Hints:
CATH superfamily of chain A: Farnesyl Diphosphate Synthase
Structural class of chain A: mainly alpha
Distance between the termini of chain A: 27 Å
Number of helices of chain A: 15
Number of domains of chain A: 1
Order of helices and strands of chain A: HHHHEEHHHHHHHHHHH
Radius of gyration of chain A: 18 Å
Shape of chain A: globular
CATH architecture of chain A: Orthogonal Bundle
Oligomer: homodimer
CATH topology of chain A: Farnesyl Diphosphate Synthase
Helix content of chain A: 55-70%
CATH class of chain A: Mainly Alpha
Strand content of chain A: under 5%
Amino acid sequence: MPQIQPNLSSPSSELGAPLKSLIARAEEALVRSLPPADTAPVELHQAMRYAVLGGGKRLRPLLVYAAGFALGEIGPRLDAPAVAVELIHAYSLVHDDLPAMDDDAMRRGRPTCHIVFGEAMAILAGDALQALAFELLAHELDSGVSPASCVEMLRVLGRACGADGMAGGQALDLAAVGRKLTLEELEFMHACKTGALIRAAVQLGGLAAGASPDQLAALDRYAHAVGLAFQVRDDILDVEGESAVLGKTAGKDAAADKPTFPSIIGMEASREHLDRLTGIALDAIAPFGERAAPLAELARYAAARLR
Amino acid sequence: MPQIQPNLSSPSSELGAPLKSLIARAEEALVRSLPPADTAPVELHQAMRYAVLGGGKRLRPLLVYAAGFALGEIGPRLDAPAVAVELIHAYSLVHDDLPAMDDDAMRRGRPTCHIVFGEAMAILAGDALQALAFELLAHELDSGVSPASCVEMLRVLGRACGADGMAGGQALDLAAVGRKLTLEELEFMHACKTGALIRAAVQLGGLAAGASPDQLAALDRYAHAVGLAFQVRDDILDVEGESAVLGKTAGKDAAADKPTFPSIIGMEASREHLDRLTGIALDAIAPFGERAAPLAELARYAAARLR
């Protein structure tokens, strides 16, 4: 395990070396957890690996690790939840990219899963990734987490993925295209669609580290703000960003007539909103002191990232 | 809870009244567990309810109850696993029916989920049902199951749903269309595609009832045989059955050039295979004595059902 010396002097649009080394840790854990590409059903396994191992910011695993660190936990029991949330995130992207959903042909600068493996295999790969996430989390006992905490982790993940969380948010998003949303409706949609899994990542890190109810509540205030900030930044980047840097098509939301923060409250208010959310996140984790530095760095990164 | 007096004199192509009353119990538990049709996201909730509450044999919940009864457990702790396996089964049907998969417009005598709600909502409803299954099972603690057993149940369900189970079997099935399979390949495909969840149902019933490792092993021998018998019967019905009774198109497998037991080993050998499998299933549960009568009835039903 690398020592975490958060790089607070680095520009917050990029992660410092310690968090980058955690990306490598997440990457290794993901590779270990996915089924081998050369065993049957080969095509399904390949599609699952393609969907997960194709880069990505690994923000959710980083949040698991950073939340665990805030509680003094740095051991292997953070790996299963880090992998689980990323498998869920990857599956959601595969399904969101399908022709019947957002119909995206490119993701992270590569053809999307259904373009490479066909729609049927992409649907199945997503389904199998979701199942694998829960299965791996149920193996968390092997790294010394108590059965009661393990069950709670599974409950948190299940809720975050379902109709009250990610899947529900995607349904709200589909229903919102071409409609005029209020700021509250937009925030609720994002709180479900991306916020629920981000909050789950932080909760899982906390639960794996044995956080108290008060600590879990503080972590959740942080995660709620970071999740929204991440989305506000996404919307700003969609207006300002360059496709080559984003790895996806800039201006796509506007073209699809999707409601965004800039389209509802304007660009300047969106930036102010972002600052406010970052402040809320940093306040929430103040009680954790020095150990919360990685969480703080991630909060600043979520608000300032360039892709 | 109704007393179970298994109706051994009833024709085995139909379930006796006691098992039918358990279908009603499963139905009530399903209705309680699904999100309400009138809360947001309304369309997603409606699609989930449509997918699950549209009839069906409820074989998997019945197997949960019957396995629990074999161990002397009849209480509410069987309800969450009964619901969980049926939610998984329902989600798999929704995704299997999609145009990119089997492209079925009718199921259980009604238009399929994507015909009614559109493809995007059908994909999301399936995704949300899978998440809900795990979430509900993680609430099993509330009915008094130990945390360790609860984690084991989640692990069993996760494994049954993933690349080594149901999703993997569906991938093998897609790859098999138009190919000549050996009997072993066909059995492996079905062992994954439908067998894994049937075995999980029986294991979950056993685990909820506190079964010993030996008892779980006996239950699994039973479930493995019943799962295969169920599929052999399915293939025979596809040749012999009437669409009106089946609620789906008879002869569809042959028309799609899908490998089946009759197409590989012939009709007579398929029937003999069915008898052999039923014998194996009944032998496996003999040690449970009288209490295994519901399991026995389900084994006979799986092999003799007319739809």
